[in-house]
## 1
Amino acid sequence: MTLLMLAPRINETGLQLLTRARHRGLRAHTAVRWEVPAGLAGLRPAHLYGGPLFADVAAGVLDILPLEPPADWLTVLPAELLTRRVECTSLAEARRLRRPAFLKPPVDKLFPARVYPDGSGLPGPDALDDDTLVLVSDVVAFASEYRLFVLDGEVRAASRYAVAGSLAVSPEVGPDVLAFAADVLATGGLPSAVVVDVGRLDDGGWAVVEANPAWASGGYACDPDRVLDVVLRAAGPAGALAPADLGYARPVPEVVR
């Protein structure tokens, strides 16, 4: 029986995926600790949904290779799709910033993603290694922001999630959002299953916000069945991974207990 393993402290999207997976006949189970229950560790094929911490402890046990976008994907996009400067640098370099910037870890939530007055507020070397990657972006104002679950280069599910920087969830997504998304996805450089966020700027233009792993992203008002389609591909059996996705597989650490 196919297994969908969900992380502890399940969120609303996880609850929806749990229900939809069971309707499909999958064995969906929410872990009670940050580990795979011994009775489920041998089930194959297996998939997972949860954050990076859970992926690191569960992927190796379940023979899963989670897919994630490249850390520097934003930095190689055409300028017209970004409308701002974005660079991927080390935490040591980012700490030296003396200007406001939006700072975030590319994938793992190692520190809060937000606008910082400068780099002095970032975690010090006692908390995170100097070579930890950081995305540094010019500050821009988005009038509205949208989450797109993408499978094989096409948007499978979409939802608005913010207006003027505040949470404002809605299933209504206009054709202009999807048209811009098509331009973004045509540039490539992403795994076959991924989440891409885009936004309308205050001046009416469009820009990419970021890309994230589908197995660690909230669905907001997206159709949960379609979200599940993307999640199952984004974190599935290592042996079923398409050659084109191999370069996007998250390294699976050895967990020592």
## 2
Amino acid sequence: MRVLIVEDEQMLADSIAEGLRAEALAVDVAYDGETALEQLGVNDYDVLVLDRDLPGVHGDDVARTVVGSELAVRVLMLTAASDVSSRVSGLSLGADDYLTKPFAFEELLARIHALGRRAHRADPPQLERSGIRLDQARCEVYRDGRYVALARKEFALLAELLKAGGTVVSAEELLEKAWDENADPFTNTVRVTMMRLRRKLGEPQVIETVQGMGYRIS
């Protein structure tokens, strides 16, 4: 899942991003509405965590633009205002959910996952193929009943390959879904991570390289 955090309190934004990345999410950050709109114009996001009280381009205007452009991204609006009228007005702008500050990170994470499931066809809690079982809720992977300890990017790559159901996933698609905008598309990041993943999954190899196209689990 790819998430855009838009929050002008830089320490808070960076803290949220760090926590979400630890949960194997790809996260970008914007500290103002104008930058957020630029990022939304060039990247595909599953969830937008949007502070309402932004300087310059207000969060309400960002929400209106998202709704008007019919982007597939789901909007979770953040605000310090907790009164009912503020929540109602925020939802009326087109926000899918509303969370007041201060909030518990665990609740934010749960709401992001819920919105991510609504943004796309819901994936089953467990993905299975070729003897591999991936539990998305527990972040656990098993190969023929044997537990496999994976780093978060390895887990994210494996999840995307399993979701593809045997079809080929390009390196560019994997980079888009498992990393954030700071990833260099010209590096061998995906290839190196894939090598580590294959080694941990063990023999016989189940991840196939399709020359010039990408990877798949047959």
